Amino acid sequence: MSISNMLASFFRLHVVIRLLIIIMGVLFIFGSLAHLIEPEVFPTIFDGLWWAIVTTSTVGYGDLVPQSPLGKVLAVFLILAGAGFVTFYMAQLSKHVIEAQNAARDGQMTFNGKNHIIIVGWNTRTKNIIQHIQTKAKNISIVLIDGTVKNNPIHSNKVHFIKGDSTQDKTLRQANITFASTLLITADQNKNELQADMHSVLTLIAAKGIHPNIYAITEILTTDQINNAWRAGADEVMESNMFLSHVMTNSLLERGMADIVMLLLDQLHGDKFSFQTIDDKWIGKTFHVAAAHFLGEHKVLIGIKRSKECYVNPSISFVIEKDDSFILIEH
Q1: Membrane-crossing residues (predicted)?
Q2: Which of 244, 140, 250 is CA-nearest to residue 184?
């Protein structure tokens, strides 16, 4: 490798690494000179290097001290040059640590983890979701993407913040979406319903374009955009407005129903509510037979999921088919 290539490679290194290499080189040169000038005081190059490190760090043990005038002149130059380099290095190191902390806080730092969850959009729902995840799965890393907040709204070492537009490849790659396990896209509360849904669908398209196999859950507000979300590759579509409409309607017709629904949802969060893919032995059997079986295992069978349809509390003669899933409540 030519000298010009070596210099080019050196200058491509991070400034802190370059400074460290320079300092070690300067210390080695002064240590070697001390050994050559006063071999009786510094019997080995290591002794000279030890003296140079102790001197530049301003520790000054005094176990090795140059005796000759030339050795003392060398010490003066070491103090002026070496100590200056070390001080400058520590200042640069502190600067880069602070810059890294600020970048992480302001959402400018790239996430390098794997098997993480990406959540798009900051709102009250997102806050509650993150709190529930951290309660149930403390080791899961979460990347929050939002372009409206100034810095990370969650103070946790398991929540990494990316500030930016979730429809842009740059932002998604900054969240390391290629190695993410799950993507949750929440509706943007700063837009009207149609604009929020269009933004969610665009985010979904961008995400699936980079990582086609990521499991994507998308919140959709308007009925007209549901099919677009499915076409864009959503694995689950959540119609939050439809859900709230059902709850409000039931409350109007049956007073107190909203409280019951919220209590049920609070009880069913986490691992109490689950899907179970059926074994072949259940094909052709009735819902009644399956429900009786699971009661013996202290589980309540409340319905059957078939493709994109759910049958809650079907008739006891409802026949189980291939590729169905059980909807269970576990104790």
Answers
A1: 15-37, 73-91
A2: 140
Supply the pLDDT for residue 25.
85
State both tokens at 286. 């009735």
**Residue corresponding to tokens 């009661």:** 295
Q: Span 282-297, mean pLDDT?
A: 89
Residue with tokens 């913040």: 161
Q: What is the 3-state secondary structure (H, E, C) of 289-317?
A: HHHHHHHCCCEEEEEEEECCEEEECCCCC
Backbone φ, ψ for residue 302 (5° rounding): -105, -10
Q: Are strands 309-312 and 299-306 parallel, antiparallel or unpaired?
A: antiparallel
User: Which residue range is the domain that position 208 belongs to?
Assistant: 117-244
Could you tell me if 10 and 18 are in contact, meaning their C-beta atoms sit under 8 angstroms apart?
Answer: yes
**C-alpha pair distances (Å), 268 with each of 261, 265, 302:** 10, 5, 12
pLDDT exceeds cutoff 90 at 327? no
Q: Is residue 251 part of a domain?
A: no
Number of structural domains the chain divides into: 3
Return the axis-axis angle of helices 15-37 and 69-105, rounded to nearest 10°. 170
Place of tokens 């604009």: 195
For residue 279, give every residue at least 6 positions away whose Cβ sits within 8 Å of its Cβ, in sequence order, or none: none
Across 5-32, average pLDDT:
76
- pTM of this prediction? 0.63
Based on the domain organization, do 182 and 214 belong to the same domain?
Answer: yes
Residues 160, 95: one domain? no
- According to the model, what pLDDT value does residue 229 have? 94
Is the pLDDT confidence value at 81 over 80? no
* Residue predicted with more confidence, 60 or 47: 47
pLDDT (0 to 100) of residue 139: 86
In the predicted structure, residue 186 carries a pLDDT above the cut 90: yes
C-alpha distances in angstroms, 266 versus 114, 149, 328? 30, 28, 16
